[in-house]
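INTERNAL AUDIT FORM
Audit reference: QA-55
Scope: verify that the stored structure record matches its stored sequence.
Auditor: D.O.
Record contents follow.
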Amino acid sequence: MTTETTLTAALSYPLANQGIATDATIFANLGTAPLVEHALKRGEGQLTKDGALLVDTGKFTGRSVKDKYVVRDAVTESTINWGTINQPMSTEHWANLKADFLAAVKDQEELYVADLFGGSQPEYRVNVRVITQMAWHNLFVRTLLVRPTADELASFTPEYTIINLPSFKADPERHGCRSDTVISVNFSEKLILIGNTEYSGEMKKGVFGLLNFLLPAQGVMPMHCSANIGADGTSAIFFGLSGTGKTTLSADASRTLIGDDEHGWSDQAVFNFEGGCYAKMIDLSAEGEPEIYATTKMFGTILENVAMDPETRELDFTDSSKTENTRGAIRSSSSRTPARRTSARRRRTSSS
């Protein structure tokens, strides 16, 4: 059982200050190696031949867009384009969902907490606390978001919080949702709740959604794109739907990667929202995409739903029997090009 004293020692801003009470043992801001160890001990994944962590995301191998909701209230009523994508949830249903989520949090035996930044530019980033039931989910979000320094962690106060409980099953009648899977965003309470899905991309897109909502009012255009920068300070932006080649095109050995998926365009720079890359792995090869391929042989990389020989631990990137949406969460596209890099004042745009 975790005491308040232990929570305060582990986190600069205790969970209790957020109205979150739990009897769980809290593992706060663990590094890559201990999180991999926890994931293996808990049976959440396996090591590949070359040391990457291989996980299976269960029945969901992509985002469950039909199960995602935004709470409709005074903050969002006239600022959200409501429809089949931005589905509303009433404040009454949200109150029930939140109460049931917090009750489930209280009963957990172990929880993992990561304090991170959404956005690499200090003037535009948001402080995000992510509370996960699974160790590998915490590793994933630490890989994809921007990590604070030790000094920043010592004074970290969360602005937005994500709680991710794959074991939580929603009640459509009580919670106003479609199924027993739910992803719900409340901008007024600055809280995102994710239940009954192990697909890690829900957390990533949750943060992207926050920045999409917040940054236009600050004069920043959020973009779903990849971007890199040349030696002359000119940046290139690659737009395209998922799977059309943005990550591959931006991972150019002659240029420095800014990021592979989510960016902001301000008057000063094109900057990455993230600290890592979330690359598609299907049909990956050393010849076709050498920099991305190299990351699959690195400790700390997370591979989702990639086929592996159970005896040799060799990976088969051509096997789509589970899903074509096989993914890799990568801290850096290579040891030479940090994805956190911000840039540049002169820009040109491209399309993948």
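Auditor finding: record pair retrieved intact. The chain is about 20% helix and 30% strand.
Action required: none
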